[in-house]
Amino acid sequence: MASVITAPQYDPIPTAEKLATKAVAAQKAALQAQNTLASNTSTALGNLKSAISTFQSAMSSMTSSKSVLSQSATFPAAGYGSATAGINATPGTYSFFVEKLATASQMSYGGLSSVNTADGTGTLKVKIGDGVGDNTLDIDLAAADKDGNGTLTPQEIAAAINGNSKNNSRVTASIVTINNQAQLVLTSNATGIANAATLDASGVNNIALKGALIAPANIKEVVKADDATVWLGGKPGGTAITQASNTFTNVQDVKITFTRAMSAAEAPVTLTVATDSSGTAANVQAFVDAYNKLKSLMDGLASPGNPEKGIAAGIFAHDSGLNALRSSMGDALRLNVNGVSLVSYGITAQRDGTISLNAAKLTAKLADNPTGLDKLFGNNSLSAPAGVLGSMDKVLGQWSNITKGQITQRQAATEKLQKSLVKSGERLTAQYDTAYKRFLDQFTRLQVMQEQMSKTSDMFDAMFSNNKS
Questions:
Q1: Residue 215 Cα to chain centre, angstroms
Q2: Total tally of structural domains belonging to the chain
């Protein structure tokens, strides 16, 4: 039999898929590249927006604290108490003699036991200080029997006192059991004579309960309420200050809490209010760190990359807008106020554009001109921005403004592009489907033709076979 030239066999489905995929491959690659760029741009803008917001918040914190300077108020040794100074505190020394500390009252009412409400209940009064108005808590003993079992327990009385609507945590009642006898311990949560708490059982009509509450043998003053007395300038030549609290605010913008009374033989203790150099340095360092963090992110976004080292360029490499922002931020740092700049206070730019703080130089300049630092930093308030913070915020606002800032505009443009890319993807999918159907039809026809030719060939082979019987 003569040799037969056999045509290649095609499976229509995979062949149509391959050809249709090849037909849109270039467009698909271009679309994927555009989608990747748009997605990376959107992410980068989001990161930049967050970083700028974080830095602006750091500047706002400096503005809200009213001063970069930190003040300290210190005792010469531990054990006297603690003190803090605000920005309006006047540097100086103040002498104090602590005659006595304020104490919170604590009363114990013993001999209590459960009573039958059928034998009477009435009203138990808790008096705080003078007992006038809200300083008297009326405890309805009938309502205090919460489980309604007809038995009023000491624990239920304590719970009713603590839960009274006028109490507001001013007094705490608790039960202490000693030798099977319940004691109701009434503790004032505030120091001072005016906050002393006692029970008034005159309105209680349960004889057993009233008897236990008013019996002198059952009533003990565990801690006597007292006011604090502190002498400014020493005793007896100074000025006596008496108040209910152990925390004193008589010195402007200074809060002092004393923790022990002094003996008559002790000399007055001296409190020193002064500029806290280390605290101020920490405040400045916080600004330096926040700026460098934002600068680092911007540098990464605008990096030209290094192809030789396999370092990819940043998403905004050669972006004139971002480069202008970075330059304007540098200009804001160089602001000069009355002949003084950040460099004067030890804040200098490094070769990579970040800034650093020389704490020793800052301390030295503060000693020479402590108020100049606040004037230099200024504030980033909306009403009256000033100084470095005001200039910096103005520059960043051109990007961070939520209505017309660069980030908002660029995000809107990117979102619009992404939506158009979705439509382009839909069109490309339709184009693929059309190509696939066309190729599938062509190769299905070819397959049918091959099958017909194969059958015709088999028929001729059978007709002209040399092996006919």
A1: 55
A2: 3
